[in-house]
Structure formats: C-alpha cells, structure tokens
Amino acid sequence: MTETITLWGRALSELYSNITKPLLDIVLFSLKLSELMGWEGPGTVVGYYMISLFVIRHISPPFGALTARAQELEGDFRTNHHRLITHSEEIAFYSGHKREKQVLNSKYEKLEDHNQYVLETKLGMTAFNNFLQKYGSVMMGYSVLGLPVFGKRASQYANTAAATASDITQDYIRNSSLLINLSKAIGRIVTSYEAVQRLAGYTQLVGRLQDVLNDLHAGVYDRKFVDSELLAQKGLAPGKGERHIVDDYIEFDI
After folding, report:
1. Cα separation, 144 vs 40, whole angstroms
2. d(Cα 168, Cα 147) in Å, to the nearest integer?
3. Is the pLDDT higher at 168 or at 16?
4. Which structural domain, as residue segments, surrounds residue 106?
5. What is the DSSP letter of 55?
6. Where is the ABC transmembrane type-1 domain (predicted)?
7. Average pLDDT value for residue range 15-20
8. For residue 118, is pLDDT > 60?
9. How much is the pLDDT for 41?
10. Within a domain: 236
11. CA–CA separation, 114 and 121 (whole Å)
C-alpha cells in the first residue's frame, strides 16, 4: 500500500500539471485566433477534440479497474514473499518448498499475464490516440487555416490584407503557430482521460485502506478468509453440512 500511495500522489500531481496549463493555453490561444479569423476556427478545433474525446471514452478499456487489479495482484505476490520469509523455518522443516514455489510461480504468472494484457491494451489505445492527434488534427488544421481566404469572411480579409502573397503567407504562419499550440493544449486534456482512469484505480485502493483504518479506529475487525460465493458454488456453504454421531472419533467427509 505504501507504493500504491506513492503512485496515487504521482498520478494526482501529473494530472494537475496536465490540465491547468493546457486550460490556460486554450483560453489565450482561442481568444487570439478569434480576433484573427473569428470563432469558427477555435470552435472547429474544440469540436473536433470533443468528438475525439467522446470516441475515446466509449472505446477505451477500464484502465482504472485494470490498474487496481494490477496493484492487488502485485500486493498478493509481495504478501506471499513476505509469508515465505516469515515462515521459512517451518516450510523447510516440513519440506514444503516445492508447494511454496508452485504458489509463488502461480501468483507471478497471474501478475505477468495481467501486466501483459494492460501493455497490449495501452499500445492499441496509444496508437489510436496518436492517429487522432496526428492525421486528424492535420486535416482539421488545414481546413481551419483556409477559413480567412476561403471562408465567409474572405472578401473582408482580402480588403484588409490587400491579398498579397507575402501578407497571406505571414498570416498563414502566424495562424498555424497559434493553431498548433491550441491543438496541443486540447490534445493533452483529451489524452489525460487515461490518466484520470489510472488515478481512479489508485484512489479506489487508497479508499479501501482508509476504510480499514477507520474500522480499526472504531474497534471493528472483520476479515474474510474464504469467499462465500466460491463455497456456495462447491456446495460448501456454512450451515449445510450434516453431523452423524457414530463413534468416539471425528471424521470430515466432503
């Protein structure tokens, strides 16, 4: 849990830096672009990224749950290592090293398989996000940059800029620079959705720890060693057994 708290604090600080500065950039660059080419340009950029965010939200896997599950598996693996160290003498005395090795290998394989699945999922989502930001943004950007010349305000722009090649080139470079910075700012906020999910997973684990600490402070101790649903599936639910008094010995039959 100490590592989880560290990861939670790191994710929270990264999320703060990935949202506050881009929001300020969006406001400043949008105001400047609106003065140069009207609100159609910034509105088109914001609209494109809002659609991208909507698509990402619906196809993105639950990274929060995956992160929480990864921390649970890693914690389980560390717990078994600690148990092995604590009871090493007893395990060696009863020759239980083979069984303990099987348990540790099983825990590690579960953790490795889950991390492999998370990495493969992140690879697909990262490729999709880069496609939206790179190719989609380029197509959208060219259409926005052409608004002063080919849009509704083309005649007004021709009268103010004298429609010379140097003036058009100067405005194109200036507007493209502003548009690139605006796109980067919005893109950072859109791609922060995965970071929000990851922070939610860490928050869930930290919340569980806080609940346990509150229960201990209140004197409530409830620890479940066996999953009741698993017992019910195998017909071993508490209270469903039968007792037969036959002789002076105890026998358990399943």
Report:
1. 8
2. 12
3. 16
4. 2-227
5. H
6. 2-150
7. 79
8. yes
9. 73
10. no
11. 11
Residue 207 tokens read as: 């919340």
Look at the pTM and tell me if it is higher than 0.90.
Answer: no
Lowest mean pLDDT among 91-105, 157-171, 199-213: 157-171
Whole-number Å distance between alpha carbons of 67 and 3: 13
Tell me what pLDDT residue 223 has: 60
Question: DSSP 3-state assignment of 73?
Answer: helix
**CA distance to 2, 76, 235, per residue, from 216 (Å):** 18, 21, 33
254 in any annotated domain: no
What is the domain count for the chain? 1
**pLDDT, tens digit, 9 for 90 and up, residues 39-98:** 777 777 778 778 877 887 788 777 777 877 887 888 888 888 888 888 888 888 888 888
pLDDT per residue as tens digits for the range 217-251: 777 766 665 566 666 666 666 666 677 777 776 77
231, 238 in Cβ contact below 8 A? yes
Task: Please check whether residue 233 lies inside any domain of the structure.
Answer: no
∠ CA 132-128-55, nearest 5°, is 70
Q: Cα dihedral angle (58, 60, 61, 65), rounded to 10 degrees?
A: -90
pLDDT of residue 113: 92
Dihedral angle, C-alpha 4, 5, 6, 7, nearest 10 °: 50
Specify whether the CB–CB gap between 125 and 60 falls below 8 A.
Answer: yes
Distance, CA of 12 to CA of 18 (rounded, Å): 10
* Helix residue spans in the chain (DSSP H): 2-37, 40-59, 63-86, 88-93, 97-131, 137-145, 147-150, 154-161, 165-217, 228-233
Angle at 82 between CA 81 and CA 86, to 5 degrees: 120
**Residue 132 carries which DSSP code?**
I
Whose structure tokens read 């806080």?
Answer: 210
